[in-house]
Design a protein that fits this description.
Number of strands of chain B: 8
Distance between the termini of chain A: 25 Å
Helix content of chain B: 40-55%
Number of helices of chain B: 6
Structural class of chain A: mainly alpha
Radius of gyration of chain B: 55 Å
Largest sheet of chain B: 5 strands, antiparallel
Shape of chain A: globular
Order of helices and strands of chain A: HHHH
Helix content of chain A: over 70%
Number of helices of chain A: 4
Oligomer: heterodimer
Structural class of chain B: alpha+beta
Strand order of the largest sheet of chain B: 3-2-7-1-8
Distance between the termini of chain B: 104 Å
Chain lengths: ~110, ~270
């Protein structure tokens, strides 16, 4: 309940405040959002599995975001930023799909 | 990356997320519904904070993505690619401009040359019209009046006069304001006058000629010339030459289409 409310509050805050994205954050924010999504879906799956742990969730969320940002940064420095971003997105996308499949099995039993 | 779905060693037994739950539901769906129904625990609060951050960041990113154009935050390589594409496009466009300008210049010079040709054709038509007598003309020249009391002036005298005027550069000649003298003009003596191109003229004859007035007047007046010829004893006419700045020749002839002669290269 509180988690859903928190998500709602975050979305509303973003809609109301309409903040400018700082220029140094521009390349990292999209990847960070996708990485956080991956962590959230993983947490939801763990919750449905009955093995949810808030500490694990927080750590996985933060580390996902950080590692995604580091990979993008490193890619930019190495001159393969675009390709590496694509790779990260692909990997995270695959994980999100598999997590969502597990969630679906839990919720719809199908 | 840490992986949420596989923290199995950490929590071997499925611990319910809500410890105070009296009957921990074993089913995932039931657990989710139960969690949604209750306000939640410490774990839910942490999740709420992170989800709020995620929602905020996602909305911000969506907004920024929709608002900003593609160049803000683009990587250096992408920017270089954009610049290359743009410069290629501008090169193509410049080539197109040059091609169109060439076409325009060609069309313009075409028009100009056509206009020049038309101008020249018109000038030539004017010149030929004056020579052939198909257009009325005006200019400086002489008016020669030949009076003939005794009927002695005939085609011989007039023909000599016309030839001398032509010799002196007359450009257009008219007789009695009725007949234009052209290349095909013929003179013939008839009773009481001269027939010129089918028109009978009677004295006094008025020859109007356009050319240099002085030259024309001089040409008529030399020893044994036209004036002498007309004022000879057996002809006994009088000649009056009047130089004028404005001689008007209004009669024209219909251009006769040549029936036998054809333009052709000779020799």
């Amino acid at each position: 309940m509180i988690a859903a409310v928190g998500l709602l509050i975050g979305v509303l805050l973003g809609l109301i405040l309409q903040p400018e994205v700082p220029i140094w954050l521009e390349p990292y924010l999209p990847i960070a959002v996708v990485a956080a999504l991956d962590a959230v879906f993983g947490a939801l799956r763990a919750f449905l599995d009955g093995i949810f742990d808030d500490k694990v969730f927080v750590v996985s969320f933060v580390s996902n975001v950080l590692i995604a940002a580091i990979i993008v940064y490193l890619g930019d420095k190495l001159g393969v930023g675009g390709q590496l971003s694509t790779g990260v997105i692909v990997v995270l996308g695959i994980r999100i799909f598999s997590n969502v499949a597990a969630i679906r099995r839990h919720i719809f039993h199908a | 990356m840490t992986d949420q779905p596989t923290p199995a060693p950490k929590q071997p037994t499925p611990a319910p997320p809500t410890p105070p739950a009296p009957l921990p539901p074993s089913d995932g769906r039931a657990r989710l519904l139960a969690a949604l129904r209750r306000p939640g625990s410490r774990g839910q609060a942490a999740a709420a904070v992170l989800l709020a951050i995620l929602g905020f960041a996602a909305v911000t990113q969506v907004k920024a993505n929709g608002k900003d154009d593609q160049y803000v935050g683009a990587r250096q390589g992408d920017l270089v690619q954009y610049i290359n594409n743009l410069s290629l496009a501008s090169q193509r466009t410049e080539a197109e401009i040059a091609r169109l300008q060439q076409t325009r210049d060609a069309l313009r010079s075409d028009t100009r040359s056509r206009r020049t040709a038309l101008e020249r054709a018109r000038q030539q038509a004017d010149t030929l019209g004056i020579l052939a007598g198909t257009v009325p003309v005006v200019g400086s020249g002489v008016r020669v009046t030949v009076t003939d009391e005794k009927g002695g002036v005939g085609s011989n005298q007039l023909l000599e006069g016309l030839e001398e005027l032509r010799d002196a550069g007359a450009e257009a000649i008219e007789l009695n304001n009725r007949v234009r003298v052209v290349a095909q003009t013929s003179l013939k003596d008839v009773d009481g006058g001269v027939m010129v191109d089918g028109t009978v003229l009677r004295a006094p004859y008025v020859i109007e000629a356009i050319g240099s007035p002085h030259d024309l007047a001089t040409a008529l007046d030399f020893k044994g010339g036209f004036i002498d010829e007309v004022q000879r004893a057996d002809v006994d006419g009088t000649v009056q030459v009047q130089e004028s700045d404005k001689v008007e020749i209004s009669t024209v002839v219909e251009p006769a289409a040549p029936q036998y002669a054809q333009p052709g290269a000779t020799g």
